[in-house]
Structure formats: C-alpha cells, structure tokens
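User: Last request for today: this protein with pyridoxal-5'-phosphate, please.
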Amino acid sequence: MGATRALIHLERFRRNVRAVVHLTGRRVCAPVKADAYGHGAPEIARAALEAGASCLAAALVSEGAKLRENGLDAPILLLSQPLPCEIPEILHYRLCPLVSDGDFAFELARAAEAAGVRLPVHLKIDTGLGRLGCSPEEAPSLAARIEGLSPLELAGTATHLAVSDSADREDRAYTEEQLVRFGKALDAMRSSGLDPGIVHAANSGGVMLHPESWFDMVRPGILLYGYDMTGAAGKTSGAGVLCPEPVMELRTRIVLIRNVKKGESVSYGRIWRAPRDTVVAVIPAGYADGFPRLISGKNWEVGIRGRRYPLIGRVCMDQCMVDLGPDSNISRWEEVSVFGGNAPDAGELAAEIGTIPYEITCNISSRVPRVYIE
Ligand SMILES: *Cc1c(COP(=O)(O)O)cnc(C)c1O
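Assistant: Here's the final one, the structure of the complex with pyridoxal-5'-phosphate:
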C-alpha cells in the first residue's frame, strides 16, 4: 500500500450510531449515499446495522445495488429521484423509493405488477426544502393514489428539513413551520383513513436541535460520521447530550526531507518563502487525493508524532509540503495526520476553506485506500 490512506475508525462510527439510538429512542436510518460520505458504503452500512440502525439510505440506484451485491439485506431507502429506465433495478435489488408524484408511482406500479412483486414505497412531502416531494396539500391524494395501485405499499412518509442545523432564531422558526406543514399533511392523510406508515423527517440538525422532528425514525448522516454542524454537541439540551467522534482520518507518511535556505520558495506560485533556514517535509497527499487546494496559504497544521506542523506553499496534485522547523528530529517515512487523528479534523478543514465537512470526506478520491480500524 502507498503512503496515503483514509483510516476509518469503525468503532467511533458505531459509538455515534449508538449515541443517536440512545438519545432519540427512535429507529435510525443510516444514510450511506456517496459511498457513505466517502467512508466506504458496505463497511459503514454493516457497522451501522451492528450498532442498531434499522435501515440504510442510498441516493442512487447503483449505490443501493452495490449494498445488495455486498450482502446487505436491510431495507434501503432511495433518497434521490431515479429515472424510469432504472425501475427494473429498483425491483431487482428490492430498493424502497421515495415517491414525489403520481406519474412515477404509476410507472413503479406497472413494472412491479409485471414483475409480480409488491413494492414498498415512502411518500415524500416537500414542506419547504424546495427539492423533491409533493406539496403538503397533495399528500392525501397522492397517498390514496399509491394505496390504490395494488403492487405498491405505502410503507412510510417523509419530509426533509432545510435549516435544521442552524440555531438562529429565524431558522428555528422555519424548521418549526416545516414540521407544522408536515404534521398537517399527516393529519389530513389519517383523517382520510390513510396510514402514513413510518414517519420520518430528522436529518442531523433535526436530531441535535429538534426533538419534535424525530417522529418514528431519524436519518442523520453527517452526525454519524462525527461532525456536528449545530454547535450543540456536548451541551445538555432538552434532548440530552451527544458528542460525535470524527470517523475519518487522512493519513500519509513523509517521503522526503529537505533543507531549505532562508528566502527560498517552496511549491507552485512561490506563495511561501522560508523566513529562516529550515527543514521541509514532502508528503504525498494532494488535491487529486481530495486534500483541497483551497487550503494553500491558509492556516493548516498536520500532526506528526503528536505535534502540529504548518502546511506551506500550494497544495499540488499529488503532494504538499510541511515546515518541520530548523531543529526538528522528525525523520523520513514517519506517519503524518493530514486531517483527523492528531491533526484538526475534516470539520475544521472545511471551516478554514468555507465549505462543509460533507464535501471534504466525499471528495477523498478513489485512489486513496480506505483502511478500516476497529
Ligand atoms: C443526505 C440526506 C440526509 C442526511 O443528511 P445529514 O445532513 O447528513 O444529516 C437525510 N435525508 C435526506 C433526504 C438526505 O438526502
């Protein structure tokens, strides 16, 4: 194996899952879309189920298929809208689509009928994200339509929250408004004699800040991977305390150590010049591995032997450089935490470049092997 790999701490992931199960007392659906936010879907899915999750969620049909091919037998929700040509695979792999409209429900029913199978689906209601889902007003008639298409079974009803991770007053009010709309749609369904099945709405922000969004099942993603976007982690709220642990660490090794004289530059663009004679380590992690080039010239420190050392100069495609200082006793081939481990985590890296940890972990490229640690 090469020097650069993503260490995936499975027991931390399991602890995060157990903490959500314990906090909410609800069923947990583990989102493992985008290869489990870059952590590796089959391994993470297995760990989620071991830790008490009751179902999985994928975005793409191909992601659901990969889970089945790897022997995962739990229910798999399909969060994104598939194409009609993907319906045979949905049936073949027993995926559970979220349905936003009657036309697609009809297409699903026709194919399920022809295949001679029953197909559980969840009704998706748009209460204010402005993405997938029917309007709250349409929900009872769409639910009735689904119930009327005999191979379909209305197994659940869902919505998705737009600003649940924000503690800002206006955002909290918006989330409450979304939940009121959702509640009204559920009431209307029930008073027409329709059973909504498993009701779910909470993403990570919902789990952390909005207990009233928990319903029958929660779907936190980023929280299970160890990042709290709300600032509520570790604080006692009405709901309890939760301290997620980051699951991914980007690890590499020093491949070369060089002496750099005062005034000499390092890397493309010459944005860094040595302020004094110093020793520089070359590490083989670059933007092609998913270490973002935007961190160049910002404040970032990697971890080596429990100490922090500044990243210097531009991040290249395959490499970047670290200033070890003039008197370092660090040697060639030593281990380096690029983020996570004894470096700051992916959440801090994201904050430094104005993005979110989701994008950091999802972007760790396929050439970086995932190494699973218990
Ligand atoms: C991705 C996703 C989630 C999980 O979101 P997080 O912000 O990672 O908690 C939940 N529900 C849906 C529909 C999603 O697409």
